[in-house]
Specification:
Immunoglobulin-like; about 20% helix; 1 helix; 2 domains; alpha+beta
Length: about 180
């Protein structure tokens, strides 16, 4: 008799789990069939980087980074550009493969980006890719191998944030991560 009760309780638990599973599968199918992002934009941007820190205070620290824009949506975006912003009073010296707006056209390099704002600004770098006027679904474009250098002869702290802009999202989207460095 005791075994029958246990069997009935177990069967009831299995039935409830099967009902839950059936409910969850229906919900997943509904979500997939409605595909709310199918015609919407789905863009992410993010940093990848590596840092070389020196234990000698007289030597320079260096970071090499890349800023990526990935179109995960099903629509092509047009005229992408970025803003890389260094924190105020950061010790960073920023450089990368970009040209200034007034550069000679014959000097423009493949895979280069064009700086849109004043080159005297050392906190914001507004950049657009040369020759890339759109970003198709599943495509990635990157601002590659920028360098950030600084010294640690006194305590330091700084960050780099990124924002991506394009015709379909003029207010921009922030990157999903940022770079922060500090030390004594």
């Amino acid at each position: 008799m005791e075994k029958n009760k246990e069997l009935i309780v177990l069967q009831e638990k299995i039935r409830k789990i099967e009902q839950q599973t059936s409910f969850y599968l229906k919900e997943i199918k509904n979500l997939l069939s409605s595909n709310p992002t199918g015609n919407e934009l789905n863009i992410i941007s993010y940093f990848t980087y590596t840092t070389n820190l020196s234990h000698d205070k007289d030597l320079e620290h260096m970071m090499i980074g890349t800023y990526h824009i990935h179109n995960l949506g099903k629509k092509t975006i047009t005229n992408p550009y970025i803003c890389l912003k260094l924190s105020s009073n950061s010790p960073f010296q920023f450089s990368g493969k970009y040209i200034n707006k007034n550069s000679n056209l014959s000097m423009k390099l493949n895979d280069a980006w064009e700086r849109l704002n004043n080159q005297s600004d050392k906190e914001e770098y507004w950049l657009k890719p040369l020759g890339e006027e759109s970003l198709a679904p599943s495509q990635i474009i990157s601002f590659p191998n920028f360098q950030v250098k600084w010294h640690s002869n006194k305590p330091y702290s700084g960050s780099i944030t990124g924002f991506t802009y394009f015709d379909e999202k003029k207010e921009g989207i922030p990157s999903i991560n940022q770079i922060s460095v500090s030390g004594n």
